[in-house]
Amino acid sequence: MKKKFNFIENEHAMQALWERESVYTYHPDSDRPIYAIDTPPPTVSGSLHIGHIFSYTQAEMIARFKRMQGFSVFYPFGFDDNGLPTERLVEKELGIRAADMPRSVFTKECLAVSGKYEAEFKALWQSLGFSVDWSLEYRTVSETAQRISQRSFLDLVSKGKAYEKTSPVLWCPHCKTSIAQAELETESQPSQMHTVLFECDGRFLEVATTRPELLYSCVCLFVHPDDTRFKHLVGKTATVPLFGRQVPIYTDSKADPEKGTGIVLCATFGDATDAEWYIEHQLPLILSIQPDGYMAPDIPYIGGMSIRNAREQILKHLAECGLLTESKDILHQVAVHDRCGTSAEILPSRQWYIEILSERERLLAAADAINWYPESMKKRYTAWVENLKWDWCISRQRYFGVPIPVWYCETCGKPVFPNADSLPINPTETEYTGTCSCGGTTFIPETAVFDTWATSSVTPQINGLWGEPNSRDSLFPMTLRTQAHEIIRTWAFYTIVKSLYHMDRLPWQDVMISGFVLAKRGEKISKSKGNASLSPQMLIEKHSADAMRYWAAGSKLGTDTFFSEDALDASKRFMTKLLNAGQFVLMHLEDYNPYEAESLRLLPIDKWMLNRIAEVSAEAEEALNAYETGTARQILDAFFWNDLCDFYIEFVKDRLYKPMIHGKSERTAAQYTLYQALFSTLKFYAPYTPHLTEYFYQLYFRQYEGQSSIHLTAWPERQSPDATLLDFGEAIKDEIAIVRRYKSEHQLSMRADMPPLTISVAPEHYKWFWASRLDFLACTHAESVEFEMK
Q1: Is residue 331 within 8 Å of 189, Cβ to Cβ?
Q2: Is 531 a residue whose pLDDT tops 80?
Q3: CB neighbours of 750 closer than 8 A, spacing ≥ 6?
Q4: What is the pLDDT of residues 258-268, one digit of tens each?
Q5: Which has the closest alpha carbon to 170: 489, 496, 397?
């Protein structure tokens, strides 16, 4: 009994072959043009889910396609294993807190845990058959990556693009660190607009606020300069309710007359506008909220309370004193930290920044010089740049990350920096031995680390070993950046910033933006949401890697899709069909030698198939060059199912089995065409189902084609198909379809005999139909067939 084909066993065998043959090794000395891919290093914050397979596999298909196009493909893989996400994973998994132990001890734990997850990640990508050169693997916390990240910082300092200052900064009370604007998400949350009474000239003023707990930090009131209702108040002072402090009343065009009562409370700091006013109007600083998210202990009524409890307590006191006139339910747009969902605060702090606001026009122009796939994603980038309000804060008050290489003079506070040849360096572990310009010789080390994006944004430089003795300068600019759309504002934007500042050129030519996999309408599958119940490894072991890969190419680039296990049924139907078709064709090629198949007399339908292959190759190539793996797969599926399997194989089947009727040379012509058709089909699907296509290549085609792997063969050469032959093929397919439909409607077997047929054909197709009559008769089981010109 013939053993059933085991797809998963075959995948293991093919992966072993690729490793043994070094099929995907990058050869820097090759004379082929370089195609360099800037692959997103997955964040080490938990296990991978089906969404990662979706986006990473689409990009991997492009790597395979470009390799077959003749490029020397630089396809590395990295792991983003420093920063807050990894910290939180380690704290959760080990039940520890970074704040409770020395940094060196916590760092050791982080390296161990992240190393375990990285091994799992790598095993998953390998089980999917990723054509990665694993010798190019990197970690963002590795010594080389840290050195390049710190080199980036020092370069920006020398160019005046990185600076430190004490000013209002976005702050996450839960994570207890500064954050950047790009790390904020806006949520619509139920809240209340409270109207409280200030006093001015013996009269009450109604002032609306959503943050009554910040009354203690109120430093002034604002009205719009054109609001005639309040012109008489400008320049006067008002009394803050409960606290009795006098604050001035100013005008500013950002005070919205239509919002609340038209009088706006400015506290340090309730929102970004408060921070702007604080700087523009040189307002005093009165702090209420501490870095841990609790109220300062010396505030009357609410000292030491959480923000929520403080709000409730202040409202209670206002009501008791008759100073609260209304509390109206509203939906409030709240900025939350994307890592933990905590409402962001604004606190004054000394931080390091990269200047970006002054370069807005240059950063917008960069978008036009990059090819965006799909094009619509460029709008997300430009909208982000146009709405920037802050320079990029790159320092984080955390523990596991790339140290900021700076010390501060204990005498004058001036920052000092290490020599480039001492990188990477940790200032908390290494003393600065120089002398400050003020003459000071004692220095305080910086304890903050870089934002993880500050290092992730130099992945092109890490891949190119920028500044290293063994640098790969030929990779700049890289060809392709692949990523998901939600990190356009972070990874894409920051990488463009760094590349322009460091190298005065763009980091890559093309950007390929993938969509999300959704658990339900509008809800992205993610580790943090806990809705990724289906383990990718379990799915692969159950359904096969090729099945997962084929599914991943089922949608248009940049669009979101849903996943359920049932969606893999189409993958398995395809794989079974390809297996059966391949086995059938190879059975009929057992006595065929392509080296001896010369002076062929191809029949018109054979020529049509070869022309159809050329047409499909060009169409799929065009789609794949636009990174539309889904569109290309649709083109290929239509050819494979409709043209090759349902029509051509069935049409020439009798010719294969009965050369005594059709002629030996005619059978050889069919064999030649099937050889080309199957080999081309395997090439077409090699980026999608690399294991199954490799199986057939190794089983039969390798002995004739020479390359050690199908993935090193060339994509079918572009040729101009004969349009008249293509029309002929469609015409004869239509006639066969009519016969099949007749038999189906009359509940007849497809092998049932038919009476004599008379077919009307176009004059230009007449001779080709006539030359195909024996195949036509065998396929339709007609008693006879006559062709007449229309």
Answers
A1: yes
A2: no
A3: 740, 743
A4: 999 999 999 99
A5: 397
> Scanning the structure block, which residue is given the tokens 């969509």?
515
Cis amide bond preceding 536, omega within 30: no
Compute the distance between CA of residue 678 and CA of residue 696 in angstroms, rounded to an integer. Answer: 9
> Rounded to whole angstroms, how far apart are CA atoms 129 and 545?
7
The H-or-E segment that residue 274 falls in is helix 272-280
Taking CB atoms within 8 Å and a gap of at least 24, the contacts of 209-212 are 209/260, 209/265, 209/270, 210/270, 210/330, 210/332, 211/267, 211/270, 211/311, 212/311, 212/314, 212/315, 212/318
Pair 395, 352: CB distance under 8 Å: yes
Query: What is the β-pairing status of strands 517-520 and 523-524?
Result: antiparallel
Chain Cα centroid distance, residue 387: 22
The mean pLDDT of 30-49, rounded to a whole number, is: 91
Task: Report DSSP letters for 326-365, one per residue.
Answer: EEEEEEEEEEEETTT-PBPEEEEEEEEEE--GGGHHHHHH
The sign one gets for the Cα dihedral 535, 539, 544, 550 is: negative
- How does residue 388 score in pLDDT terms, banded at 50, 70 and 90? very high
The percentage of the chain sitting over the pLDDT mark of 70, rounded to a whole number, equals 97
> Which candidate, 652, 621, 653, 651, places its Cα nearest to that of 636?
621
Structure tokens given for 639: 């050819």
Query: Could you tell me the pLDDT band of residue 753, with boundaries at 50, 70 and 90?
Result: very high
Average pLDDT, the chain: 93
**DSSP 8-state code for residue 43:** B
- Give the helix ranges, DSSP H, for 69-102: 84-94
For the segment 701-722, what is each residue's pLDDT rounded down to a tens digit? Answer: 999 999 999 999 999 988 899 9
Q: What is the pLDDT of residues 124-138, one digit of tens each?
A: 999 999 999 999 999
Helix (H) or strand (E) holding 149, with range, is helix 143-158
Question: How would you class 168 by CB atoms within 10 Å of its CB: exposed for 0-12, middle for 13-18, buried for 19 or more?
Answer: buried
SS3 469: coil
The neighbouring-strand residues paired with 79 are 139
Task: Kindly provide the residue ranges of all beta strands, DSSP E only, lying in 411-477, ordered along the sequence.
Answer: 415-416, 443-445, 449-450
Alpha-carbon distance 687 to 685, whole Å? 6
Pairing mode, strands 561-562 and 523-524: unpaired
Q: How confident is the model at residue 525 (pLDDT cuts 50, 70, 90)?
A: low
pTM: 0.88
Q: What is the pLDDT of residue 182?
A: 82
Please list, residue by residue across 633-650, b when 16 or more beta carbons sit within 10 angstroms of its beta carbon and e when fewer do: bbbbbebbeebbbebbbb
Q: Which amino acid does the sequence have at 40?
A: P
- Annotate 726-774 with DSSP letters as a single string: HHHHHHHHHHHHHHHHHHHHTT--TTS-B--EEEEE-GGGHHHHHHTHH
Would you mind telling me the total number of residues written for the chain in this entry? 790
Task: For residue 87, give both structure tokens.
Answer: 């910290």
